[in-house]
Amino acid sequence: METKSTAKTAASRAAPKAETAQSKIKTANAKPHPEVLSAQVKDILSVLVVFRFINALCVRTFFQPDEYFQALEPAWSIAFGTNSGAWLTWEWQHQLRSSLHPLIFGAVYKAAYSLMTWLQFFAVFKAFILVALPSVVQSLFAALGDFYTWRLATEIYGIESYAPWTALWMTVLNPWQWYCSTRTFSNSLETTLTVAALYYWPWELLKDTKSDKTEPVKSSSSVNSLRLSLFLAAVAVLLRPTNLLIWLGILTFTVLRFTLDGASPITPAIVAKLVREITICGLAALTISVVSDRLYFGFWAFPPYKWLYFNISQSLAVFYGKMPWHYYIAQGIPLLTTTFLPFALLGLYKASLSFAHYSPAKTGLTTLQSNILRTLSSTLIMMTATLSIISHKEVRFIYPLLPILHIVAAPYALTFFTASPSPSSSKTVILRHKLFLANLLSVNLLLASYLSLFHQPAPLSVLNFLRSDFERLHPNSLSFDANDIGNGELFALFLTPCHSTPWRSHLVYPALRARALTCEPPLDTAPGSIERETYLDEADRFYKKDDKGKYGIGFLGEEIWPIRRDGKRSGEVPRYIVGFEGVEGLLKEFFEGSGKDMGIRLERAWEGWNGAFNEDWRRSGKLVVWGTGKEK
Question: Which of 231, 253, 345, 515 has the fewest C-beta atoms under 10 angstroms from its C-beta?
Fold first, then answer.
């Protein structure tokens, strides 16, 4: 009995000590040691790099041609020369694009090829590595985008808050991120550059001097952070000129302090410092870009000006599609955020649309935190509204705004799915609405899986088939040096909407000759002219239906294989014809009718499923490769 009583007394004495120790642990967790923080940052980045590497390997589908034709085709030309068979579209021929983006992949192509040549790898293995390499490189940029989203959220909400972790989970579990972040779009790199620049931006410029009288951007570390931010922003603007709208918004709200709370720390001296640093960093980035473009194009060029001239003055962007003014509101932002849309809308509303009711006292945020969120949200709305005026719209154009959407949505997602633990609880977080959360994550997983594995995989797999068959049939023509290759057979003719597949980045070998329908815009026509309105590119002419609803047969007989004066048809007969199932009937009708003298008997050599649906009737059904009967 004495033993039990003694133990009970000891336990009761130890209880307060245990509670004190637990309290200390919680306090320590609230403010981690700098070394612990540093290790945590490295661990998070390492995990994200591995995660996005796996992500890149899992994406096996085709999305949009710019992923290849605005990045990898010019990169291939940089690495292997102008005679390598890379398809340089009209934008590159008229200097609308900066060479900085493809230069990254061109350098990687060149370095990897040189290393593999030194190691005496087989040509087939070289081709395999070169096809996969760009996605692997892009996975690093995607991981950095996730990483800086988390760091920016930490900068805003504080290391003690769970909101940054929520923002990180949102960007990791976002289906759009899984589907697009590892693709080699310039928009994907632009997104990473933007969120990194926002992280390094000196947000103390938005503080209230009544509560903090220290001068902002005074220390050398703060100035260096500003310079890094401005340099990254300048590169993003050079890659995509519309990115300038983000930084005009940030600067406008910072300097004019429109809708922000508290007394401004901005002085004429700080404005002069900002102007000076913007000029220096902008000129540094511009110099690098101009030199790069000079080396790539062979003469002095300024792509941002050409981009503005052709897309704004000449209205050529409309040639690739015209969307209603509400496209970004009704489709763009919902597609970016998917299941997180309600939290993003609530965050935007709280931060920017109810200035009179959104005060630090009512939200638990400091004045600086609320000012940062308000600036980011208002900038997002301003950019979306401005881009809505432009007729040609794509979701990718507002992709750099996605990290902001995750950050403003994070506190509301956190509040909805978690509850504050009781004082006696040892748990740091309590989940609630678990069934709803499970359903939400299941929808995200299904979307990401379907889009990455099953929606339009054929445009990639068909090129794997063609390349493999070329390696089998022409084992002595696998050189990467275009000067060593003669003018061999036309291996494939693509009768598909233009740019329906990647090109040399997946065909690889210069000797693998192929032809596809083109869709060059009417560069020599005036906006609003009859010539502009009635213009039909090559793909349009092929798919133009006659009064009977038929298409393609006349195009084949008049443009692909026209009749010569001697009554025979000219034009090369390819080994394979590639097209979607819808063209099979017209091909057979042509080769069994007016083209019968060509002696072609079509046989399916390969076919690939291309998803459960397609919004473009020209791409409906399977993608098929027909053999023409040429001697194998």
Answer: 515
Report pLDDT digits (tens) over 64-110: 999 999 999 999 999 999 999 999 999 999 999 999 999 999 999 99
pTM of the model: 0.91
For 597, the token pair is: 């003298």
User: Which string of DSSP letters, residue by residue, matches 163-223?
Assistant: HHHHHHHHHHH-HHHHHHTTS--HHHHHHHHHHHHHHHS-GGGGS-TTT--SPSS-SHHHH
Q: Any idea where the domains of the chain sit in the sequence?
A: 30-60+94-453, 458-627
| Gap between the Cα atoms of 157 and 152, Å rounded | 9
Burial of 353 (0-12, 13-18, 19+ CB in 10 A): middle
The vertex-532 CA angle with 531 and 536, nearest 5°, equals 90
Categorise residue 196: left if φ over 0, alpha if ψ from -120 to 50, beta otherwise.
Answer: alpha
Q: What is the pLDDT of residues 152-162, one digit of tens each?
A: 999 999 988 89
Count of all residues that appear for the chain in the document: 632
CA-nearest of 478, 269, 266 to 371 is 266
Q: Could you tell me which residues come within 8 angstroms of residue 437 by beta carbon, excluding any fewer than 6 positions away?
A: 417, 431
Order of all β-strands in the sheet with 490-494: 513-516, 490-494, 576-580, 623-627, 603-608
Question: What is the band of 472 on the pLDDT scale with cuts at 50, 70, 90?
Answer: very high
The 10 Å Cβ neighbour count of residue 423 is 6
Q: How far is the C-alpha of 413 from the C-alpha of 441, rounded, in Å?
A: 13
* Alpha-carbon gap, residue 87 to 67, rounded angstroms: 13
